[in-house]
Design a protein that fits this description.
The protein is mainly alpha-helical and 108 residues long. The chain has a domain of 67 residues. It contains four helices and no strands.
């Protein structure tokens, strides 16, 4: 008769204080790439404001949510640099989305 080592198997029930699930909940790899691109677009911006916006970016669950955060990214980059740098970064973010209509620059 074969007897398995009891200590070598994982328990079926979680231990006290152990999380049931780790990581992002059902987020596609494409969305993770888009989130990383949005975080890169904030490079060089003031740290406190960038951290707040990064928290909002990481909380999204759909690419449409990221689309609406573009204006906040634009405003923060424009405040730190200028409107041309902000527009350049927004153009890079726009390339992540499937756009069926022409892009319109943000208002100055």
């Amino acid at each position: 008769m074969y007897v398995r080592d009891v200590g070598a198997t994982l328990p079926l029930w979680k231990d006290h204080g152990q999380r049931l699930v780790t990581g992002l909940a059902a987020v596609s790899p494409r969305l993770v790439q888009m989130i990383a691109a949005f975080e890169r677009a904030l490079r060089g911006t003031p740290r406190p404001a960038a951290l707040l916006l990064c928290a909002r970016i990481r909380a999204v669950r759909h690419k449409h949510d990221l689309w609406h955060l573009r204006a906040d990214v634009y405003a923060l980059v424009r405040q730190t640099y200028d409107r041309w740098e902000a527009q350049l970064r927004i153009d890079e973010l726009d390339d992540l989305f499937d756009l069926s209509h022409p892009r319109v620059p943000f208002a100055a």
